[in-house]
Amino acid sequence: MYKIFKFISFLIFGFLSLCNLSLSAEEKIKIGLLVPITGKDKDLGQEIIKSTRIALKDINTENLEIYLKDTNSNPNKTLKSAIEFRDMEIKIVIGPVFHKNLLYLNEIKEITFLALTNKTLDLPKNVISAGVNATSQLSAIKKFIEKNEIKKTILLTPNLDYKDEIKKAIKLSKIKTYKHYVYDTEPTKLTAQIEKITNYKTRKQNLKDEIKRVENSELIDKDKQLEKLKKRYTIGRVDFDSVIISDFDESLKSVITSLLYTDVSPKKKYIIAFNQWFDQSLLNENSIQPMYYPSINKKNLDTFKKKFIKEFKITPNYLSLLSYDLVGLIYYLSLKDKLDNSGTLFKKKNSFKGKIGIFDIENNKINHRLNFYKVENKKLKEIF
Questions:
Q1: What CATH number did the domain enclosing 10 receive?
Q2: Positive or negative torsion for Cα 379, 138, 154, 174
Q3: What is the 3-state composition of the chain as percent helix, strand, coil, each rounded to the nearest 5?
């Protein structure tokens, strides 16, 4: 067991003004931290531990105690550690990190777990997903669409295990999409599906027909018109104004490349992705720009990274920032209500401003108010 203590006084990251809220010197806030200390993910676990130390230092109070236990990225080990937390009468735990480790936690009803996963389906009743979920992302995208008066949006989702998360998020975010397509990630099949979605073959044939018509005509400017037509790839409009792609990394780039192949350009249609965590490789891909995506507050992330690197000489994972904020969130809620009421603590409507951004809490759900970014001309620009 590990026990992390820090200092006195009352401060929550400089974000909150909490007048008339205090704890007696004897009243301790006990938080469990359930992360991989051993096994293949132990490095990530160490980064999360380090970020909670920074949080404790910034909060600066003797009333907060964090107890650490191992998941070994294994559901059985996770359950064993959770039972030990229960025996210690700990009511709230940050972790586990991975969705697979939630498997048996419904057996520990006395504890509320703030899991770092962004998955929200099939959660035990005592587990709250604290990650940047699909609902939060689609809510930010919805705001962007409404702000730009975009009328027809299609949503493209890969045929992977999180497609049901996307369907649930569409409903919860109340985003209006014209059509939702689930595509195959195998390149040949993907290209064929994008051709169908964009009506590519008809638009390509339209161009061939028009070239033939002009060639057989007696138009005065026939040569000039043919020259223009031969520079084009298709004739005809696609039946949407924007495309939301719920994909990442090289797979995302493959989808956008397929759209380019079918003559759907980011310069003519809004190409919107899910949270890309500021993937630097996107800045170097001129052909897929401009593109847009929601994410956490980058300025706060950069500030946190500098602090983390200065303290520990390594660059933190994004989950480290999330765990940092969760320590502050629990402390904030504990000042409003006792952690003994952890079963109802996250049912009340609350908002909390952290480094990631604003957490909205209600009905045992945590959503994030995300920022929105544009990648263009090899630069990242904040939209809101």
A1: 3.40.50.2300
A2: negative
A3: 40, 20, 40
pLDDT tens, 119-170? Answer: 999 999 999 999 999 999 999 999 999 999 999 999 999 999 999 999 999 9
Helix (H) or strand (E) holding 140: helix 134-147
For the beta carbon of residue 193, count every other beta carbon within 10 angstroms. Answer: 19
Angle between helices 200-215 and 222-229 (to 10 degrees): 160
pLDDT tens string 306-351:
999 999 999 999 999 999 999 999 999 888 777 777 778 898 899 9
Q: How far is CA 220 from CA 131, 224, 255, in A?
A: 64, 9, 42
**Are 244 and 166 in the same domain?**
yes
Nearest to 272 by CA among 288, 251, 250: 288
- Can you tell me whether residue 293 is helix, strand or coil? strand
Distance CA 4, CA 274 (A): 36
The amino acid at residue 181 is Y
- Give 120's contacts (C-beta < 8 A, 6+ positions apart): 129, 133, 134, 135, 165, 168, 365
Work out how many domains the chain is built from and give that number: 2
| pLDDT tens-digit map of 243-290 | 999 999 999 999 999 999 999 999 999 999 999 999 999 999 999 999
